[in-house]
Amino acid sequence: MAEEGFDVVVVGSCMTDLVSQAPRLPKAGETIHGHKFFIGFGGKGANQCVQAARLGARTTMVCKVGKDFFGDNYIQNFKNNGVSTEFVGQTDKAATGAASIIVNDAGENAIVIVAGANMMLGDKELQGAGPAMGGAKVLICQLEISPETSLQALRMAQERQVKTIFNPAPAIADLDPDFYSRSDVFCCNESEAELLTGVAVSSVEDAGRVGAELLRRGCGSVIVTLGPQGCVVLSSQDPAPRHVATAPVTALDTTGAGDSFIGALAFYMARYPTMPLEEMASRANRVAAVSVQGVGTQTSYPYRKDLPQELF
Ligand SMILES: Nc1ncnc2c1ncn2[C@@H]1O[C@H](COP(=O)(O)OP(=O)(O)OP(=O)(O)O)[C@@H](O)[C@H]1O
Ligand SMILES: *[C@@H]1O[C@H](CO)[C@@H](O)[C@H](O)[C@H]1NC(C)=O
């Protein structure tokens, strides 16, 4: 590691998903029987990191989990995926982040997220990871940790000439304007773009309009993902919106598709720094399309060996 440095550093969240499937969602005070339960590894930061690692990026995760069973398990999950755990901290002051999810037979859900240990990631941990950040190619962060920590991570990366990808998810309406100027690539989905700009996004043209507004706010480049329609890409050097379409696939479970896309994008930015952003986005579309054809979040993310060679 020392002489080579990391390709991708993720400063972000880890969550354990506790998923119960039931015929319907329970009412207040009610107990009902479900038919299936499973535990999954989630959290936007960790998802993005795992996807980048599976494509072959040297990755490290800067995050905080609890000193508990779920925290221990998550660290093992990173190791199983070849993600460095040097900067994964464990605290006894909060539990590992958890999402309790109930899904009914119609596919609707009710979710309680307890961020827990994720909110205890702060300045001290970032300073500890500073030297490793310095030798890295790309840093990614999101908003499932404290926004101040994310913004500081973006600043530290740019001071060290590390490219930044910022994913404003889950979106907050009053985003600190510094997030835009600190984003080399600002990557969001339709609902996030809408919340940030106040402009409804329901077409490729709308995505181009909100993308232009986000560029005006100071981002280097903007990508708005559009589910089965792929994405729209704009850059300050090339501000005309470009639609990067994707081949239609039969989606089985789109959970975590956005994170697969961003993990893949980070891989391409780190390993193919001179590739045009549109080409990276086109390849990231193809990686994310594989993820929607399998069930679960990280369980559906492809490895390099499962993908066509022309993507590398
Ligand atoms: N039905 C689909 N067919 C092909 N590709 C898809 C489909 N859905 C999503 N994708 C791919 O995944 C990327 C991200 O999808 P989307 O814009 O829905 O992100 P998201 O809303 O953040 O995802 P999610 O919230 O479901 O994790 C798209 O840009 C596209 O490349
Ligand atoms: C965008 O991502 C958020 C998570 O940040 C999700 O809740 C929302 O459903 C997504 N929107 C679309 C249009 O997929």
From TrEMBL:
It is found in: Cytoplasm; Nucleus. The active site is at residue 259. ATP binds at residues 189, 225-230, 246, 258-259, 285. One of its GO terms (molecular function) is metal ion binding. Its EC number is 2.7.1.15. Activated by a monovalent cation that binds near, but not in, the active site. The most likely occupant of the site in vivo is potassium. Ion binding induces a conformational change that may alter substrate affinity. Requires a divalent cation, most likely magnesium in vivo, as an electrophilic catalyst to aid phosphoryl group transfer. It is the chelate of the metal and the nucleotide that is the actual substrate. Its main location: cytoplasm. The keyword Protein biosynthesis does not apply. It holds the Pfam family PfkB. K(+) binds at residues 253, 255, 291, 294, 296, 300. InterPro entries: Carboh/pur_kinase_PfkB_CS, PfkB_dom, Ribo/fructo_kinase, Ribokinase, Ribokinase-like. GO terms for biological process: D-ribose catabolic process; generation of precursor metabolites and energy; glucose 6-phosphate metabolic process; nicotinamide nucleotide metabolic process; purine nucleotide metabolic process. PANTHER family: RIBOKINASE, SUGAR KINASE. This is Ribokinase. It comes from Conger conger.
